[in-house]
Amino acid sequence: MSTRNRFSGTATGSVLQTGVVEGDVHVISYARNDEIGVILKHEEDEVRLKVHTETWFYVTVVDRSHRTRLLQFGVESAAAGLKWEIIHEGAAVTDATLPAGGQVQVRLVVHCGSTAPMAGTDDLRVLVADKELAPDARVWWLSNTKRIIVEAVPALSVALAQPQGTVSSRGTYNTVLELANTGNTDLHGELEVSADFDRTKRSSWLPSRNFRFADESSFDLGLGDPPSSRRVRITLPKPGWLDRTWRIALSVTLSRDDVEPDPRCLTIEQSGLLSRLTSWGEITENRKRRTLAGWAVVPLALGVAFGVMITGRSSEAEAPPVQAGAATSSAPASEVATPVEYSAMPCEAGTSVLVLHSLEESNTAAHVRTLLDYETTMIEQRRPGVEALKDKTAKVTRRDATCPAVLGGEGPGKNTDERFTRFVWVGPFPSDDAAGMCEKLDKIAWKNCLPVHVA
Length: 455
What we know:
Number of domains: 3
CATH topology of the largest domain: Immunoglobulin-like
Number of helices: 7
Structural class: mainly beta
Number of strands: 25
CATH superfamily of the largest domain: Immunoglobulins
CATH class of the largest domain: Mainly Beta
Largest sheet: 8 strands, mixed
Radius of gyration: 36 Å
Strand content: 35-45%
Distance between the termini: 82 Å
C-alpha cells in the first residue's frame, strides 16, 4: 500500500470509484491556508474494515473565512479499491453548502469488498474543495488521518478441468487444476490429495493413489495475479454400465496461522458402457438393420469388456492407459437410427410382467433401442438352465397398450405419473414365480425389477 489514491463520489447514492490520481501531485493542489477546517472522527483509534460491511465515519467541515462555499468531497487512501459515499441530511451527495462562518456535518460511509482493497494497514483522510472555484484554481483542504486495517480474507478457487475427449475406458488421463486468487491478500500454500476416504466404504471417492501431480503442488498467487494451472494425472478404473461421477478429496493448506486446512471435493465424469452403446446405437450401417438380429451385433461389438461385465470373469489382460484427447471415430451422417418395435403388453389372468424401465417422452429411440438390446443380452446370458426364460426377450410397450395394473393402483411398481409414456418389460411369468425371476436376472425386486400382477 504505497500509492496514494483519490476518489470522487456520486450524488445518486450508489458507490462508485470514478477517478484515480496516482502520484501526479501537479494535477491537484493542497490548500496552504486554514480557511477551511476538516475533522474526521471515529470512536476507534484504529478502524477495522471487515469484508462485505460498511463503516461509518463522521466529518465536520468548519468555515473560518466567513464566506459561503459549495463543498466538493473526496477521500484519499493508499488502500486501492475502497468505495465510499457522503451522506448529508439522509441522502448521498457529492457536495454540500457550507454557510459563512458556520459548519456542516456529514457522514462518510466506506464499503469494503471481498477482493478490494487489499488486506493490510493504511491511513485514510477526507478532502474538501470549493466547487465554485475554477478547476485550475481549485485547492483541497485535508482532514486529520485515521488508521484503517483491512481484514484479510484469503480465498482460493480450485477447479478440475474435465479431460479432453471421451473419458470412459480404464486408464490414466491428463488434465489440469485451475487455481485463482479470489480473496484480498497474497496466497502461499500447498495442495494435497486427502487419503481420509481410502479406509472407508465410499465407492464414489477415487482412491488418493489414483490422483498425482505432474507439476509442483505448491502455489504462490499474489493479489491480482492471473490464474495458475497445475498439471495432474488421474487414473480411472474400468467403467461400469452407467455413467459415474468420481469424487476426489483435495486439501488446501495456506501458509497462514489464522487459516485451517480447507477440504475440497473435485469431480470427474466417466462414461459408462451403456452410454457408449447408446452413442453407437444412434446410427446403423444401413437402413436394413431394423431387426433385433441386426442389433445383436451391438453387445458383440463391445468385445471382452461387455462379456466380463455380464459373466463376472476377471481374467482379461490389463487395459493400457488411455490418454485424454484421443480421437474418436464416427459413422457417416447418412446412416439412420433403427426404429423401435412396440408391442402390446399381455394382460393374462394369473400372470405378472417384470417392468425394467419406465421411460419419458424425452428418451430417444436410440436410447430405447439400446435398453432393449442390453436387457435382451442379459436375458440370453442367463437363459441356460432357466426354462422360464427360454422364449423371453425384452419388449417395449406404449402407455396406451400397457396393462392397467402397471399404470395405476397401490403398491410398488405402479406408474401413475403420466410423464412415463413407454415401458421396457419382460414376461409374462406366473405371478407366483415373478419375484424369483428378478433374482435369476441378477436384479433386485422393487428396485430395478418391478414384478407387477397384471390380471
